[in-house]
Specification:
mainly alpha, ATP binding, transferase, two-stranded antiparallel sheet, tRNA dimethylallyltransferase activity
């Protein structure tokens, strides 16, 4: 989920949907979106209900990172998670005889 900051009113780690963002009172504020999937950004900018692109001048900045660098970062993060107890945490929620081949 992208992080949305509006003068300290939204906690950085809170779930904050495009709908939440567009319903905020943005008087005298410049919205800044950090992170987010293409579909999130597209919905935010293109959805006629939100009219985001009609309310604001829109600028996009992409940081292009090469795949090997991303792979190393993901590998390091997974190692950190495993070292912090990820395997034991998953063992606590797995039901031994459950069928995990079907979606919920």
């Amino acid at each position: 989920m992208p992080r949305a900051y509006t003068q300290g009113e939204i906690e950085p780690d809170s779930d904050f949907t495009t709908e939440d963002f567009c319903l905020q009172d943005k008087t005298q504020r410049i919205p800044i979106i950090v992170e987010g999937s293409d579909s999130y950004i597209e919905k935010l900018v293109e959805d006629p209900v939100f009219k985001f692109k009609y309310k604001y001048d829109t600028y996009f900045i992409w940081i292009d990172v090469e795949q090997p660098f991303l792979n190393r970062r993901v590998d390091m993060r997974v190692d950190e998670m495993v070292n912090a107890g990820l395997v034991d945490e998953v063992r606590q929620i797995v039901i031994p005889d459950a069928k995990y081949t079907k979606r919920i």
